[in-house]
């Protein structure tokens, strides 16, 4: 056994996600991850909001791009955004975070260390980070924020 090699804990290998306030993504050292396109980052936020459930391209077009679900150029753009997002995450050392399936995308929830997920799983220590704001830069996140507020009032 090499005593010099550091022990790797599961939490150290997970992509760190902050959803309370503004949406932020950090690597294992706590540095912000750079995204080549702002909308790639928003796509990641949207997939995280969906908690690992598969999301159809049409839903992404409507909610993230705010375009008609039948817009073929928008469908191509979602494909480009997802490729960029996957490349950005891989460049930061995170593989298989975004799972592509037939006409859907989903997040590999088990590969994330996410404040929202911890809170929803009942870890009350995350309430001190939540100040009635959840991914406040994205209008589609208002529904989830309302659910968190409702949850907090119970």
How would you briefly describe this protein structure?
The chain has a three-stranded mixed sheet with strand order 2-1-6. A three-stranded antiparallel sheet has the order 3-5-4. The protein is built from six helices and six strands; from the N terminus they run αββαβααβββαα. Helix content is 39%, strand content 13%.
What does this 3D model show about the protein?
- The structure is a single chain.
- Helix content is 39%, strand content 13%.
- It is an alpha+beta fold.
- A 3-stranded mixed beta sheet has the order 2-1-6.
- The radius of gyration is 16 Å and the shape is globular.
How many β-strand stretches?
Answer: 6
For the record, give the distance between the C-alpha atoms at the N and C termini, rounded to a whole number: 50 Å
Structural class: alpha+beta
Helix content: 25-40%
The helix/strand order is HEEHEHHEEEHH
Uncertain segments are 1-10
How many helical elements? Answer: 6
Task: Supply Rg.
Answer: 16 Å
Question: What can be said about the biggest beta sheet?
Answer: 3 strands, mixed
Beta-strand residue percentage: 5-15%
Q: Which strand order spans the largest sheet, edge to edge or round the barrel?
A: 2-1-6
Shape annotation: globular
Mean pLDDT: 90
